[in-house]
């Protein structure tokens, strides 16, 4: 028989395969050390020291690279957000529409005001005159030009104009003021310059006012209103002082005087001789006329006869003989 030729590599291959299998079993069981080449101790130490440095350098380089990327990201977001279209709210009304509405509102208000002014509710239906002593309501209203049917608001707003008109046409009206009393009533408050007497010139008597002015409308030769006649005055200063003092008296007392005569003497250079309507006479100083004359009614109320009341110094009464 011819012997088989053996392959010289079979034994070695079998050996190698058995060794490999054994080595794998050892690795799996954990008994064999790693086949990695061993490094020397110095190499390990050197490697361990250089490794953190390299790691740190790598981290720093990564941080430096990360920062610009973060900034770039924020900038990119801003750019993107700026490029986004903003939604605009549509206005309820445009500018020209608002202007038209305002114009309409103004016109409506003006129309309402005009309707009120021309309606009976916006007109004066009655005037109430207060503060007068001698002047009648009709005299005051005619002098001021006030009539019913005039616009209520317009008339009140022109109070100064009507006051000037009244003063110009009637010297006895010093001033007047208008105010709304009720819906259709205006109150006319009059500051009247009262008459304090008359001065006789020819056959007429001319009224004299409290402020010393004389009215140019002379009356008949018979006095009207029971006011006194001034006589004997030689200067305008004397007369004005007496008029100013006499104007401070009450209405009843002024109308109780018949005549005032300037009658100075050596003891009193401002003495007045006053003739009363009740038949008595009064002696008094011109500068104390308003101060002392007010005691006269109480004095004569206790007397039963007529005479002369001397009020220059104290208060004395001397009956007629």
TrEMBL record:
<keyword id="KW-0131">Cell cycle</keyword>
<feature type="compositionally biased region" description="Basic and acidic residues">
    <location>
        <begin position="1"/>
        <end position="12"/>
    </location>
</feature>
<comment type="similarity">
    <text>Belongs to the FtsQ/DivIB family. DivIB subfamily.</text>
</comment>
<dbReference type="GO" id="GO:0005886">
    <property type="term" value="C:plasma membrane"/>
</dbReference>
<keyword id="KW-0132">Cell division</keyword>
<protein>
    <recommendedName>
        <fullName>Cell division protein DivIB</fullName>
    </recommendedName>
</protein>
<keyword id="KW-0812">Transmembrane</keyword>
<dbReference type="GO" id="GO:0032153">
    <property type="term" value="C:cell division site"/>
</dbReference>
<keyword id="KW-1133">Transmembrane helix</keyword>
<comment type="function">
    <text>Cell division protein that may be involved in stabilizing or promoting the assembly of the division complex.</text>
</comment>
<feature type="compositionally biased region" description="Polar residues">
    <location>
        <begin position="49"/>
        <end position="58"/>
    </location>
</feature>
<feature type="domain" description="Cell division protein FtsQ/DivIB C-terminal">
    <location>
        <begin position="198"/>
        <end position="311"/>
    </location>
</feature>
<keyword id="KW-0472">Membrane</keyword>
<dbReference type="InterPro" id="IPR026580">
    <property type="entry name" value="DivIB"/>
</dbReference>
<dbReference type="InterPro" id="IPR005548">
    <property type="entry name" value="Cell_div_FtsQ/DivIB_C"/>
</dbReference>
<dbReference type="GO" id="GO:0043093">
    <property type="term" value="P:FtsZ-dependent cytokinesis"/>
</dbReference>
<dbReference type="Pfam" id="PF03799">
    <property type="entry name" value="FtsQ_DivIB_C"/>
</dbReference>
<feature type="region of interest" description="Disordered">
    <location>
        <begin position="1"/>
        <end position="85"/>
    </location>
</feature>
<dbReference type="InterPro" id="IPR050487">
    <property type="entry name" value="FtsQ_DivIB"/>
</dbReference>
<feature type="transmembrane region" description="Helical">
    <location>
        <begin position="92"/>
        <end position="118"/>
    </location>
</feature>
<keyword id="KW-1003">Cell membrane</keyword>
